[in-house]
Amino acid sequence: MRAKARRRGPRTAGPSLSGLVAGLAVVLLAIVLLALQATVFEVVRFVLFTGVAVALPGFALWRLIGGYGRNLVEDLSAGFAVGTAGQVLVYLASASIGLQAWSWVWAPVVLVIAFVDGDARARVWRRVERPLRPLQAWLLAAATAVVLLIVYRRGPGQFLPAYTDPLRAYPDLAFQQALAASAKYDVPISTLWLGGEPMRYHTFFHQATAATQWGTRIDLTDLIHSLSWLPLFLAGCGLVFALTSRLAPTAESGATWAGPLAVFVAGLGGAVQPLAGAGLGGISTAVAAYLSPTQNLGVLIALALCVVAVDLLRADGRPRGRWVLLVLLALIAAGAKSTILPLVGAGFAFAFLQLGLARRNTRPAFLGGLLSLTVFVAALIAIFGGSTWGTEIKPFETFVQLAPYPMLVSNPHAQLLSGATTLLSWGLAASGLFFLGRRWRDTGAVFLAGVAVAGLLGTLLTTQSGVSQLYFLRTAFPVIAVLAAVGLANLVGRLGDRRAVVLVGAAGLLGLVALAVARSQSADLHGIKGPWVWTVAALAAVAVLVAVVWKLARRPGNFFVALLGGAVAACMIGATLVPLQGFVSDKASNLVFARPFRGGATAAEAGAAQWLRRNSAPGDLIATNAHCIIERDGLCDSRHFWLAALSERPVLIEGWSYSNQANRIALAGDTNPSLIPYWNSEELAANDIAFKAPTPPAIERLRQAGVRWLYADNRAGYVSPALRNYVRLRHATLDATIYELR
């Protein structure tokens, strides 16, 4: 009995009623947002599956294996990450033997153990050790709600309903859906839009989505476009809070606001924006939460890895069960987002150096670094096939690709000025980093600093098309936000007043107002000097005003500390101005968030593709004449994925962007992979001639290639009426006609 009591841990306490109400308010908001773009029946199925088959067993494993139980926000968020990891591994195993429809069975097995075994039940369902204080819970709920609303407004609220308006689409979501469609049937995933050739890519999000589809029978369109993004993002916010609470314990500092502030900054901050016509890099989590599902999952897994790694480093590798969680999350990180493990490996390297210099035990850092390196190399070979997906080592090329450069291109030092402007905007937005003080002695903080530095260096030293190297920094930015919030808490903590939250809040609100005025006053100025002068002056005025009022109110602490605290709070919170304005302003939104593209499907085209899914068998090959979402001046933007996405069938040649071959050609020629011509022009011509001028030999070539169906898109080009003489007409709409080869 005594041993069992020790395993159960110290005396625990339950969360407050007010805190639970705050959490339920966020959950209710999330469900309402889901219901705005999906049917009630779909939302019920999705919420039940996500809660019972993913989050609950993950919660049980998080507590049972890791011995956790700090608070419900952390346990539920981390539990969802662990549950997603378990779901992916089980799905990969079951799909490889054709039992993917039963991949959910692992969840009830875990739950039965958690309920039936007495010791497991005591460890899993015990009360929390450090429940959130009511104020802390409501601040966290408010920060999360604001970020959620912004993401929804510039995500589903801007792009849905899907596949109805060809002028309001985002091709990358169709790409993600096509990969998820392949994940339903193929192990490994294939390039459905290009004949089903093998695909080397981080695809664990797509396996997770396919598992959810089999478990709920919800259409992939609704999962990708309306539902899956929200629990991933919500759990990520919870883990930002959990990570912050490890470095800024509220019991010691009274900084109940540090965790909520980190969530707010990670969601919407990242760059002070002085230029009215150019955005200085969108690196906050809100930018990619909806339009990049792999990044959304990647951030969640990266944060869960950081939480476990920090605990292992601080506790000298104990309890050992947490190593199991670290291995599990590292395995999933390998296929969730390729940027994660290099950053985590750098974090362990920083921790190793710090522990070595302090002559402390370096074994946990060494083992963590070795694990990261081993899994990354294995993933590079097994998952990515040695491909870098167009990543090149080109130091500081990023500054040529970002928005300030075109404004300065006439200046001989344009790249240097662009770099200085960008780095200054990023540095001000995370200025709390410079005030961590003694926190740098904490091995956990040093590990997180390694992650942050690696994210910045990965962005600055490499290049990809579409500035995709920013995903290194986007993956690290939640960690940067955590360190910045902790640094600000450490700074204002020197005032010796637990009411310093008033100073932080006032400086933040005034910073938003001041930066809005500065942007307005400098909107007509040319170049970058004038806008920066206005911005710096506005921030300085806020800092002085806050510090003067603080001292006039006879609050304790040094004037200079109050001045610095006001300046840092104004910078960090003021950096969220443009994303906040983006809620109501399209002009502001376009500086940070993506805008809709041309080239989507009409409702008739989408309906015909969905008819194909219902009336064909998995693996049936389709030929189509639609290849370009935009064709102009002889250039074809070949990001045409929606036929494969909606039909869930391989297409002989639809688009060819984002394939491994396209990336290799683009890398060799230093060109945009979306605009390169198809590398086998004869094959493409043979495909298209069957639609434009069909003959028995042309149709026979398609038949010999394995084609079963023809999807003739009337908007993609001329379709000969004679085609029906050689094939069987099966379905016709205003924009598309489907034929079956006889």
UniProtKB/TrEMBL annotation:
Extract the signal peptide range.
none
Q: What lineage, starting at the top, does this entry show?
A: Bacteria, Bacillati, Actinomycetota, Actinomycetes, Propionibacteriales
Q: Does the keyword Transmembrane apply?
A: yes
Where are the membrane-spanning stretches?
20-40, 46-64, 99-116, 137-155, 223-243, 255-276, 296-313, 365-385, 416-437, 444-465, 471-493, 500-520, 532-552, 559-580
Keywords recorded for this protein, A-Z? Membrane, Transmembrane, Transmembrane helix
Q: Decide whether keyword Transmembrane is in the record.
A: yes
Q: What is this protein called?
A: Uncharacterized protein
